[in-house]
Amino acid sequence: MSIFCIGVNHKTAPVEIRERLAFVEEKIPDDLHRICQIDTVVEAVVLSTCNRVEVYGASDSPPLALNDLNDFLIHHFKIESEQVEFYKFQSEAAAHHLFEVASGLDSMVLGETEIFGQVKKAYAAALNSGATSRRMNKLFQQSFSIGKLVRSNTRIQQGATSVGAAAVDLAEKIFGQLQGCQVMLVGAGDMSRSTAQSLLSRGASEMIVTNRSYHKALELAEDLGGRAVHFDDWEEALHEADIIISSTSAPGIVIDAAMIREAMRKRRGHSLFLIDIAVPRDIADQVGDVDNAYLYNIDQLQILADEGLSCRERQIAICRKVIHDHIEKRGIQALAPPREQPRPKDPPEESSTSSGDDALGPFVPSPGNANQDP
Amino acid sequence: MALMALGFVFQSLFLWERGQLHNRCPITSGGEILIFISWSIVIMYFFLGRAFRLSLLGVFSAPMVFLFQSIALLLFWRNDPVPRPPAEVDRWLEMHASTSLFAYGAFALAAVAGVMYLFLDRQLKRRNHGQLFYNLPPIRYLVEALVRLIIIGLILTTAGIVSAFFMKQHPTEIHLALSGAVWLVYALVLAIHIFKRLRPRTLSICAIFSFLLALLTLSAV
After folding, report:
1. Residue A237 predicted with pLDDT over 80
2. Pick from A173, A292, A307: which is nearest to B138 by CB?
3. Does residue A50 have a pLDDT over 80?
4. What pLDDT does residue B87 have?
5. Which of A175, A268, A294 is the closest to B197 by Cβ?
6. Sheet order of strands, A206-211 included
7. If you average pLDDT over every residue of chain A, what do you get?
8. For residue A347, what pLDDT is reported?
9. How, if at all, do strands A87-90 and A52-59 pair?
10. Residue A297 or A367, more confident
11. Domain of A68: which CATH number?
């Protein structure tokens, strides 16, 4: 008995293919049931996210199981075999692949943490459907340990990898938790909208939107759950904002140092974070010299994002070493031979099934299995 | 953290041993006073660092603790006065001395928070983020902690000054004047901050210089 993995990800298949191969979350238990009905497949876990569709499993004959699953996926998703080429891993390679996936090393945004939760969810769905047994339980439990180990022993999560994330990270470095922070959008462009949405998702409470076209401001304010302010009045509301995102198409400076000094006087010592994502710039450079006001423009945020990305890329080798060392020390638990169960002196009338028993096939949920939910 | 805890155990053992030797609170010489202040800095860090969500406070306060203990070691090496256990322990004197030195611990940590603020502010302004940047607490937490530490220090200093009036042997005028001066400086900084809202940068610089002044008065006392 060994393990295998078959799938596609953002590196091997374009979004047009990945979206056709995506499993519907609600139907995954049924799909797992169908997969486990394939003769060569004993256990299975389906991991289906925006960037990957993978099936992990255990089989007495992984090469045969991989071929069967290849056919199953093509038929199930009604896709031409020429249109997609699945990657296939067996044994140690399959385990290595899952460990890297859980650690965020195989993600589109290197080191992102969301995948860890998605792997956990995929395993929980399979566990609850009774599609896992000893091999998959051990494999996924070990992947969670390794994922945590990698994140706590390396800097793979450090730094932002996009302009929006860099802005949010800086806001949190200034204000801590963003709950209660007011955000003002000067200009209603797409970039300011997405940055504002990132801030909202991290707890920013109120949005003030202003734009030359009041209609546009109103529209965006409604979308973001904030309030619109007429462009003639926005300066009066300037001191209320903790974070200002400016993205107008004005040819000259919209916010100068005198305006910010006046706002800072009214803010009584509270910090102000200004994000200038307009080109040409909306906020005068001198604003950055005002005490307690922090100004970042689009290029500076992009530099931070690039630095964050290259820092994460430098961590890949370190992360792989952490995984390698863990495997050296503990081995791949899913590939270890099952332990001999001590034979009871007086066997009970009904032989008990253990989750650690290879003989336990899928769809036989047991208390032992249920307790292993991470 | 583990190293700080280990150091704290050794500090406590040292102070306990000296307390047994003197049969009173072990703050009878410059060296002991410095060790006591270092000990109170570490206690404050353990109790308040986590509550105020200040990561790296330990990293920034450790050099100060190291400096104080090194000076203490030098002082002990040059001259370790013979213990003179008092005929009768004055509880008010013990209270006065210990609360005042605990106040120094709080003021020291306020100064450390000030240094951390200035460091982070500089990195944010220059847009040059080193490795420490990612581990430093947010600017807002630093300022809030700094104000709270000054308030704690002021409460302890007030308790120390009040208890001095109940001591059997009244303190010298210069001693009272210097303690009052330290109290006044911090009270002024706090009052201006509350009523006029000092800018965080100014507040941090005030916390650092006030602590240096407090150390000077300590050496004079």
Report:
1. yes
2. A173
3. yes
4. 65
5. A268
6. A227-230, A206-211, A182-186, A243-246, A272-276, A293-297
7. 87
8. 47
9. unpaired
10. A297
11. 3.30.460.30
The per-residue pLDDT for range A337-353, each reduced to its tens digit, is 877 655 555 544 443 33
One domain for residues A148 and A172: no
- Which domain-ending residue is among A153, A173, A205? A153
Residue of B nearest to A307 (CA): B129
pLDDT the model gives residue B147: 93
ipTM over 0.90: no
A189 and A274 belong to one structural domain: yes
Handedness of CA A320, A321, A323, A324 (dihedral sign): positive
Residues A146 and A10 in one domain: yes
DSSP assignment of B169-210: SPPPHHHHHHHHHHHHHHHHHHHHHHHH---HHHHHHHHHHH
State which residues form the domain around A55. 2-153
- A53-67 burial by CB neighbour count: b if 16+ within 10 A, else e? bbbbbbbeebeebbe
Choose among A57, A5, A2: nearest CA to A32: A57
Inform me whether the pLDDT recorded for A66 exceeds 90.
yes
Shared-domain flag, residues A147 and A169 = no
Q: Are B30 and B101 in contact (CB under 8 A)?
A: no
Contacts of A302 in chain B (CB under 8 A): none
pLDDT band at B51 (very low <50, low <70, confident <90, very high): low
Chain A contacts to B (CB-CB under 8 A): 158-159, 170, 172-176, 268-269, 271, 288, 291-292, 294, 296, 300, 303-304, 307
Higher-scoring residue by pLDDT: A246, B176: A246
**Single-letter residue type at B161:** I
Q: What is the DSSP string of A95-141?
A: HHHHHHHHTTTTSSSTT-SHHHHHHHHHHHHHHHTT---HHHHHHHH
Buried b (16+ CB within 10 A) or exposed e, A298-327: bebbeebbeebbebbeebbeebbebbeebb
Residues A250/A189, Cβ–Cβ less than 8 Å = no
Q: How many residues does chain A have?
A: 374
How many domains does chain A fold into?
2
pLDDT in the model for residue A370: 34
With cut-offs at 50, 70 and 90, classify the pLDDT of residue B13: confident
Q: Which of A155, A202, A292 to mutate to test the interface with B (most CBs of B within 10 A)?
A: A292
Nearest by CB to A296, which of B53, B127, B197?
Answer: B127
- According to the model, what pLDDT value does residue A368 have? 37
How far apart are the C-alpha atoms of A81 and A268, rounded to whole Å? 66
Spatial strand order in the sheet of A43-48 = A43-48, A52-59, A2-9, A87-90
